[in-house]
Amino acid sequence: MFIPIYDGLAYRTIRVAWATWSVLALSCLFYAAYALRLLPGRLADETWLSAAFGVIPAVLLGSAALPDGLPLVPEPATLVSGQFVHLGFLHLAGNMLFLAVFGDNVEDAMGHARFALFYLACGAAGALAYAAGHPESLRPLVGGSGAVSGLAAAYLLLYPRARVWGLFLNRIPLQVPALWAIGFWIAFQIVQAWFGSDDVGWLAHLGGFAAGGALVVVLRRRDQPLFGAGIGKGMGKPAVADDP
To answer: What's the pTM?
Structure first.
């Protein structure tokens, strides 16, 4: 795998990525409350927490029902609530790293409000893809993986030639074009979705990625080009040069 760490890409229209950092902060705060056993009552239990806020395909699609008191939000709302629930530190860290590296520049290309809508819509699309692929499953889907997959797709279409620093095979420092980094990542997701188990929501990753690729075309600013045109112009993080 290639773990992105830093892209150094300049902002064009914003000074602070408020929506990106708000999502990151909410996700981290929710995980901290869970990990430190600060959540009330049965929410301290992993199984109950994921059932309370996560997407359960069989329940969402109407072929099963939860006991009284679950979920804690209307079932359709779990398409959003589940995106902020992470039950493991590595799961949280991986998603938040993708959000921090790619989210701010996607937000710059859309604006704060449209980026927030984009992020939540990608996460919901990922959850629906997971439910469609496992319609009888009672395993709750939680986490922001579908949403950050949408970010990766949007970043790929907006800045394919931006150079991203990361760890190749989780340990080798390397700087590569976003096209390579995200291309390698999506190839891994496809292989896992085809051959892997549903213990990880691989279909949610692919659903979020597909939604992100479609929605970025609609939600980007009118003056925001696709495919890296104008990369490096603007303010914020230091700009990087295009590939020759």
So the answer is: 0.89
